[in-house]
Design goal:
The chain is of the alpha+beta class and 377 residues long. It is built from 6 helices and 18 strands. It is 31% helix and 31% strand.
């Protein structure tokens, strides 16, 4: 089969015919506006309508477009389509097909592809002119760009790159492309060639304003203002000396910023509630301590007048913390003797024992039973 003629730089809709090559789940057309996955850019998706001489037609979804090494474009049909029966070219009847690229999806891809070039340029301007692309991925949802650099981008460098790229976006500089002989552009040092790409005799040069010039076969916006907004989501290392950024543009950038702002708001609210809860708990403990100090004073007034002053009380619905606050208050009020306190809350029993220093030679706080019997005597 002959290579497929790609017309997707100029149009997103084309009436054409089936090519001879056909397989399960895909078809080939003589010409197509669908960009095939290559150079880091994902393949186009969209619709195709098949009609015959009887004016019968069916519409099906194309979910991806790929390309063979011989330049034949394979349009991958949605496997969930029911009653998908593609006519054979050898049936003797001419079948017209109308190919329609998903325009919003293509536009989102183009925003991410063009801003990839802007990022590459800004990286040279602000960080390192020797840094080069080491891989990329351009989709409608986000872009990924790998580059060589010996260190991580600092937060300030990321902010500066974003600022410079967004300034160029607001300038709405024109984006143009033209074809030139590869032998000719090899002598032009102002044109960047992407890592790992193989070029034919004729290459496509994409120019943004008067500052960015790169070899690229992908699709792009017509002016930088079409990008709308650029935001770097993440910067990381993927290998020794190789960094990666993940970024978003246009509606995807706006959606990410809104989600990020919502997350920050939620985290701030969570922190506020936690601080409020901490202050409330602090206040509750302060109020509880006052109550326990008053209870300790009451116990002191009612202590037994035995040889060893004792306080043995079941204080009811108090937990271990409450009992410790009572014994701390007894200690601060210079209680001399033995105190054995009990309490219970939520099905758990708690005990607290206090032996003043002048009786520790006679009583062990850990032996509460023996201590209480001896103290009573």
């Amino acid at each position: 089969s002959n290579p497929t003629k790609f017309v997707g730089y100029e149009t997103l809709e084309l009436e054409t015919e089936f090519g001879a090559h056909r397989g399960a789940g895909y078809f080939v057309a003589i010409a197509t506006p669908f960009y095939a996955e290559m150079g880091g850019q994902v393949g186009d998706a969209g619709l195709f309508e098949v009609s015959n001489s009887k004016n019968e037609s069916k519409v099906f979804r194309i979910v991806n477009t790929t390309r063979t090494p011989k330049g034949i474009y394979l349009h991958v049909v949605d496997p969930n389509e029911k009653n998908l029966v593609l006519p054979h070219v050898d049936q003797g009847e001419r079948h017209c097909i109308l190919l329609r690229v998903d325009k919003p999806r293509r536009a989102a891809i183009e925003r991410h592809h063009t801003v990839t070039h802007l990022f590459h340029w800004a990286l040279h301007e602000l960080v390192d002119r020797e840094s080069r692309q080491r891989g990329s991925y351009v989709s409608p949802d986000y872009l990924r760009f790998d580059f060589n650099l010996s260190h991580a981008l600092t937060p300030q460098q990321i902010a500066d790159i974003e600022k410079l790229v967004n300034e160029r976006i607001r300038e709405n500089a024109p984006v143009k492309w033209h074809e030139r002989p590869y032998a000719e552009i090899q002598k032009d040092k102002s044109i960047q060639a992407f890592f790992g790409d193989k070029y034919g005799d004729i290459v496509r040069v994409v120019e943004i304003g008067d500052y960015s010039r790169e070899l690229c076969g992908g699709t792009h916006v017509r002016a930088t203002g079409d990008i709308g907004l650029f935001k770097i989501k993440k910067e990381s290392a993927i290998a020794a000396g190789i960094r990666r950024i993940e970024a978003v543009a246009g509606a995807a950038a706006k959606a990410w910023l809104e989600a990020h702002a919502a997350q920050q708001t939620a985290e701030a609210e969570k922190a506020r509630l936690k601080a409020l809860e901490f202050e409330q708990e602090k206040q509750r403990k302060a109020e509880r301590r006052i109550q326990m100090e008053a209870l300790a004073t009451k116990l002191l007034d009612a202590k037994s007048p035995a040889v060893v002053p004792t306080i043995i009380e079941n204080l009811g619905e108090l937990d271990g913390d409450d009992l410790r606050m009572v014994t701390d208050s007894l200690r601060s009020q210079k209680f001399e003797g033995v105190a054995l306190l009990a309490g219970g809350r939520e099905g758990r029993c708690s005990f607290a024992c206090l032996v003043s220093p002048n009786f520790t030679d006679r009583f062990k706080a850990g032996d509460a039973k023996a201590m209480s019997e001896s103290a009573q005597r």
